[in-house]
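Repro:
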Amino acid sequence: MTSMYPTFSKTDPKRTEALRSSLAEAQRDVHAACRQADRAPDEVRIIAVTKTHPPEDAATLVDIGQIDLGENKAQEGTPKAEQLRTWDRTPRWHFLGQLQRNKVRSVVSWADWIHSVDRTRLVDAVDRAAVDREISICLQVNLNSESGRGGVLPGDLEALAEHAAACSNLRVRGVMAVAPLEWESERAFERLADMSRVVRRVVPDASEISAGMTDDFTTAIEYGSTMVRLGSKILGRRHGR
């Protein structure tokens, strides 16, 4: 595969300091939200979403201690992850976007986590592709069937969890959702907490809740999120957007 990023090197010092500062601010804000929710700061993991940003930014984040990185599209994440394999440290990659079955093999080659598993055929495709490695997955829930977002409907979630739990190359880690635009965030994240309990009836240790982005992570933490997906808060405005 030809990389969309033919070369990359160390980020310039000004960009490094900007990322260091914004990451520190994000960590402070997440820790404050945890204290407000009477939770320990280490209960919530920050995923820095590097989509549309160059591999230099991703590598710099890893250099300054941000190991968990997220990408939304296979065509961007795959070449970026390939380049970072030559970096000094190895990130923990999270695939966050809707995943088509014809992209599964390329995503499984680099993603440690897939947050957007929402149907049995996708479960089976990821399981087949994950040869000699274990992929952590979250089951994406469609909290509002009229929103047009991806995700399994709540009534089908338990069956999907049972199907995924039987796969030898997958580890069901929890649930994921994006709050519907037409809902108050409190309603969305309370509903997702209910869905987490449904999955834990099938897989008792599937306690991860991937919820909350730059605009709503504080509320998500209040309702139990264990992974917040922060893009612009850390990296600034998206490139090319």
